[in-house]
């Protein structure tokens, strides 16, 4: 089976986004040959056995001068030769946006897209008359299949499209042999590098820096813990990814204003393979987003045996992980601070529960399991479309 994967149009420093790289690995583990449509068009040296195509730049300067639909028809002429060259069995777009309509108009079928979460959740907050929301609804209706990681996103897609969208559930999966709990040497190395005592309790804010993940609230909650806890704790804040609505210098100033700057550490982007070592340096993960799908970060933490403290969102009710998470009593800074302080006192019990979470992650979310599931999703889709074509004759 050959799959054309259209990578998301954003990444770090010209590199393909890590979620796309993970999906590419799933495709290869599933035994699929891959034609990769990427906006940079550059063949990364560490991506082997993939046909590379440069996804044509959408002519944004014409936005507002002509309709988005007309722009898509212009764009399809640039896409069609690429689709003919790829000769794929399935066309799979990462991240829901105008590219889904473009691929549909260019004849990329069967057409599959993976929704990442905010690509649907953010438009849902816009008025129904919003042009961007309308375009997204049209893109959803153009799909043969939408791949999601939680039931919550299925409901969101239905609301945006106005109709039921054929969907399949697939958490992206992780390498549970890479993300594992027995990394004591790496733990010590990171703590020395960050100047953190070996007996301190470390909280990790592992999500991206954007305001949607509420780093300000996490910092304020950390600062609000009782002094007896705070003085024996540190907070590691990740600073990778998009920073929409957030300013790193402002976060630095906030920690100084709150008097906790000496107890906060900042860690930027790193290779996917290096992340488990950083996770090993932490004792507790703090997750507090404004909105979310089902985050792979939670799976990574569970696979490393790290307890996760989080607000309660509907997406987290999926896949049986809720019993391994520690939820705040309410979605507030005060309740997050209380949960963090309580976790400090009950750390050993939470770590024991996280060990069970590790077993759950290995059983259900290892990337090899996800890869097999992804291939089964494609095969089911092709069989369904073939049956429909036969019945129509």
Question: Could you name the key traits of this structure?
Answer:
Rossmann fold, 15 helices, 15 strands, six-stranded parallel β-sheet, alpha/beta, seven-stranded parallel β-sheet, 393 residues
Describe the structure.
The longest helix has 26 residues, at 367-392. The chain is globular and about 75 Å long. The protein has helices spanning 18-29, 68-86, 98-105, 118-124, 131-141, 151-161, 184-193, 215-223, 227-230, 248-257, 275-280, 296-303, 333-345, 347-365, 367-392; strands spanning 2-6, 11-12, 15-16, 33-38, 50-54, 90-94, 111-114, 145-148, 167-169, 201-205, 233-238, 264-267, 284-287, 308-310, 325-327. Helix 12 links the parallel strand 13 (284-287) and strand 14. With 393 residues, it is an alpha/beta fold. Strands 5-4-1-6-7-8-9 form a 7-stranded parallel sheet, with helices on both faces. It has a 6-stranded parallel sheet with strand order 12-11-10-13-14-15, sandwiched between helices. Strands 2-3 form a two-stranded antiparallel ribbon.
């Amino acid at each position: 089976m050959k799959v054309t994967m259209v990578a998301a149009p954003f990444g770090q420093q010209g590199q393909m986004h890590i979620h796309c790289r993970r999906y590419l690995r799933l495709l290869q583990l599933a035994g699929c040959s891959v034609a990769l449509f990427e906006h940079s068009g550059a063949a990364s040296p560490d991506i082997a056995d993939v046909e590379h195509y440069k996804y044509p730049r959408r002519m944004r300067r014409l936005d507002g001068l002509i309709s988005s639909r007309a722009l898509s028809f212009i764009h399809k002429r640039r896409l069609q030769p690429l689709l003919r060259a790829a000769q794929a069995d399935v066309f799979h777009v990462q991240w829901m946006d105008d590219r889904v309509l473009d691929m549909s108009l260019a004849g990329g079928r069967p057409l599959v897209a993976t929704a990442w979460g905010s690509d649907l959740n953010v438009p849902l907050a816009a008025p129904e008359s919003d042009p961007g929301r309308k375009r997204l609804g049209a893109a959803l209706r153009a799909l043969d299949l939408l791949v999601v990681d939680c039931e919550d996103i299925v409901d969101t897609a239905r609301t945006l499209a106005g109709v039921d969208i054929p969907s399949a559930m697939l958490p992206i999966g992780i390498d549970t042999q890479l993300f594992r709990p027995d990394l004591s040497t790496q733990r010590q190395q990171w703590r020395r590098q960050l100047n953190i005592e070996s007996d301190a309790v470390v909280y990790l804010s592992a999500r991206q820096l954007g305001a949607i993940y509420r780093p300000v609230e996490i910092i304020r909650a950390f600062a609000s813990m009782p002094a007896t806890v705070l003085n024996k704790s540190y907070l590691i804040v990740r600073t990778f990814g998009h920073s929409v609505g957030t300013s790193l210098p402002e976060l630095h100033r906030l920690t100084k204003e709150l008097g906790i700057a000496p107890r906060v550490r900042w860690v930027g982007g790193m290779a996917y393979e290096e992340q488990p070592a950083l996770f090993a340096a932490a004792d507790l993960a703090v997750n507090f987003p404004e909105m979310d799908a089902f985050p792979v970060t939670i799976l990574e933490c569970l696979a490393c045996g790290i307890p996760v403290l989080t607000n309660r969102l509907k997406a987290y009710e999926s896949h049986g992980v809720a019993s391994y998470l520690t939820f705040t009593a309410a979605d507030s800074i005060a309740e997050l601070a209380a949960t963090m302080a309580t976790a400090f006192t009950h750390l050993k019990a939470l770590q024991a529960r996280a060990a069970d979470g590790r077993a759950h992650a290995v059983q259900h979310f290892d990337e090899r399991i996800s890869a097999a599931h992804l291939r089964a999703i494609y095969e089911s889709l092709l069989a369904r479309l073939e049956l429909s074509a036969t019945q129509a004759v």
